[in-house]
Amino acid sequence: MGNKSLGLKRILTFSIGAAAALAVPMLPKYAVTLATSIVIYSIYVSSANLLTGYTGLVSLGQAMFWGSAAYVAAILTTRSAVTNFYLISLIGLLTVIVLSSFFGVLALRVKRLHFMIVTFAFGHVVWCLAMYPMQHITLGYDGIKDIPRPTLGFSLPTDSATGFYYLVLAVAAVCFFVVHRVIKSPFGHALVGIRDNEHRMIALGYNTFVYKYICYMLSAAVAGISGLLFAFFNGYVNPAELHWIWSGDALMIMFIGGVGAFWGPLLGAIAYTGLRYWISSYTMYWFGIEGIIFILVVLFFRGGIAGFIMNLQRKLTNGRAEG
Question: Do 145 and 236 meet the contact criterion of CB atoms below 8 Å apart?
Fold first, then answer.
């Protein structure tokens, strides 16, 4: 009975959330634009959450996959006049998978702090390449402007705020579904086992390197998808999209939302984006206030927003049981 009730509550919560997401275009255009950025950021942070929250690998190199895919979209649409969304997505995904397959072999030879430093170094190398040797392609600090929206092959107009929002929402639904299936599968359970005690998993016969390697490439693919969407959404890409600071922002959003919580990336993206726009309307020093908020979350809300909600639900449930 308890499991049935819990299942009904989850279905009801999901239905309300889905209805709210579909109704967003009824809001003013500014709110639709804000919601689109939140959904894109949540996809990006879910890639970091898969790697850190479920596998225990803290990476400072996620931005190189986000930025690489964004540049693929920018270059193809502005230089080659390719606007087919599916072709651009395929090329972008192949690019980040090739990058991650190469960097993953090297980065996963080390663990913990060393892994974080190595991914930071790889990300910095990619940023430097985009800034200097490849400046004739990436246009350096100036970046690539006037990136057109893609064509889908059917009647949904992506050049409108509403049409593009629905495209982003559909892609996000697919990404979150895939991530959910991964973490609930035996493969996902093995990743959690590696996070909690890798030596035990090795003793049980698991090839932990292969599991982490596949997870690293899958995480890169999800980050790349979000980067592609951001390029079309923003209409402009520069080397800042490849910088390690954006990788650090992904970790910060993940901590705010809840590390290892499935809906943590979405909750963190809502809080991060909402606070950023709200605070920046009052002061130009919103970066500092953002840092203070992050410190408070780490000190007093270890489980982030998702953890706070789950603890509150647990207390309410226990209170009703005792009553």
Answer: yes
Separation of alpha carbons 46 and 191, rounded Å = 15
What Å distances lie between residue 250 and 48, 52, 141, 256, CA to CA?
7, 11, 22, 10
Collapsing DSSP to helix, strand or coil, 84 comes out as strand
Rounded to two decimals, what is the model's pTM? 0.94
Q: Map out the domains of the chain as residue ranges.
A: 30-244
Token look-up 């953890």 returns 307
Count of CB atoms situated within 10 Å of the CB of 293? 17
Tokens standing for residue 299: 């000190």
Name the residue with tokens 């040797």.
133
DSSP E strand stretches across the chain: 144-145, 236-237
pLDDT per residue as tens, the chain (323 positions): 456 666 677 788 778 888 889 899 899 999 999 999 999 999 999 999 999 999 999 999 999 999 999 999 999 999 877 888 999 999 999 999 999 999 999 999 998 899 999 999 999 999 999 999 999 999 998 999 999 998 887 777 888 999 999 999 999 999 999 999 999 999 999 999 999 999 999 999 999 999 999 999 999 999 999 999 999 999 999 999 999 999 999 999 999 999 999 999 999 999 999 888 888 888 777 778 888 888 888 888 878 889 888 888 777 777 665 65
Measured between alpha carbons, how far is 70 from 72 in angstroms, rounded to an integer? 5
Contact indicator for 147, 235 with CB cutoff of 8 Å: yes
Tell me how far CA of residue 196 lies from CA of 51, 58, 199, 200, 212, in angstroms: 13, 14, 9, 9, 13
| Burial status of residue 322 (CB atoms within 10 A of its CB: 0-12, 13-18, 19 or more) | exposed
Which amino acid is present at 104?
A: G
Give residue for tokens 């057109």. 148
Contacts with 12 (C-beta within 8 Å, 6 or more apart), sequence order = none
Element (H, E) at 155: none
